[in-house]
Amino acid sequence: MSSKQWTVLTRLSILAVLVSVVFGATAAVAGAGPERARVVDAVRVDERNIRYRVYSPAMDRVIGIDVLRPVDASTPRPTLYLLNGGGGGEDDATWRKQTDVLDFLATREINVVQPVGGRSSYYTDWRATDPALGVNKWRTFLTVELPPVMDAALRTDGRKAISGMSMSATSVLQLAIAAPGLFGSVAAYSGCARISDETGMRMVRTVVKVGGGNTDNMYGPPGDPMWIANDPYVNADRLRGTNLYLSTGSGVPGPHDVADSPFLMTPGSEGLANQVIVGGAIEVATDQCTRAMRERLDELGIAATYDFLDGTHSWGYFRDSFLRSWPVLARGLGLTG
């Protein structure tokens, strides 16, 4: 299945869910085994970009890691973990291929780390091996195994931030909650933090199903305590002290919802119709989710920066939100801008 087909299928599946709902460890220690997470090899793509392959004991496999180095790597620099969406960075629906965000980051003195993998996984630790998606222990990998490996390989200054869109917008909040203090800043674009209520649970199940997986292997059946244990809305108090940015579109067409937009996954009228109709419906849901999370954080007295804008669930808005979030991310990285 092509990335465009995957994107369309994901949007249509989530739209069907929305309609049905509305209307009816020590950081350096690796996993459970005696082996440690380690760099298997590294290939320099060009002067600034390196493809690392890192072994994960928790998943017993090698994960690709795309790294953008700072202009001046002679001094220790902070690191931004930049997560892709439901395709896990293995398709064309990536920050690099659909936006100019990496060009923007190339002007900053930071390391940018992008894991390649995790399709439909929500970058979390699954309770069981899935027949389609295999072993998923992404939370362990991204909070325990990978950071010390990257810190050593890149000679970083130890400061970290993380951001994600769509599926991974949920994930970055979960990861920050699982490892308080690991990430100085978290930015989540067009995601749904509340996963243990009916709407959130169905959305998660739909994204996982698009990848061929079964959420019974993830958090168990509906009502299992693992859903609440992994719900950022329920566990939002653990975000205290983190620089937070949350954004969403309203679902109402905005400036990027035009036929000649460079951000259309499928050019022309067909792609625009899909973006406006299906992407609009998805963004209506993420708008509700984000507003609920704002109320929750306000109740807890936790400050955050929010952007509620017009627009659909699509790359032009993810790109805009990233740029708007940069001052928040920069604070967690110890940068002034």
Task: Please specify the SSE layout and strand pairing.
Blueprint: H1 3-22, E1 38-44, E2 49-56, E3 61-68, E4 79-83, H2 95-98, H3 101-105, E5 111-116, H4 138-154, E6 160-165, H5 167-178, E7 185-189, H6 198-210, H7 225-229, E8 243-249, H8 269-300, E9 305-309, H9 315-332
Parallel strand pairs: 4-5, 4-6, 6-7, 7-8, 8-9
Antiparallel strand pairs: 1-2, 2-3, 3-5
Number of DSSP strand runs: 9
CATH class: Alpha Beta
Strand content: 15-25%
Q: For this entry, what is the oligomeric state of its chains?
A: single chain
Helix content: 25-40%
Figure out the total of helices. Answer: 9
Query: What's the mean pLDDT score?
Result: 92
- The helix/strand series, from N terminus to C terminus, equals HEEEEHHEHEHEHHEHEH
Read across the widest sheet, the strand sequence of neighbours is 1-2-3-5-4-6-7-8-9
Whole-number count of domains: 1
Q: What is the CATH superfamily?
A: Alpha/Beta hydrolase fold, catalytic domain
State Rg.
19 Å
CATH topology group: Rossmann fold
Examine the secondary-structure arrangement and name the CATH architecture.
Answer: 3-Layer(aba) Sandwich
Identify the overall geometry: globular
Structural class based on helices, strands and sheet pairing: alpha/beta
Major beta-sheet overview: 9 strands, mixed
Distance between the termini: 40 Å
Low-confidence spans: 19-33
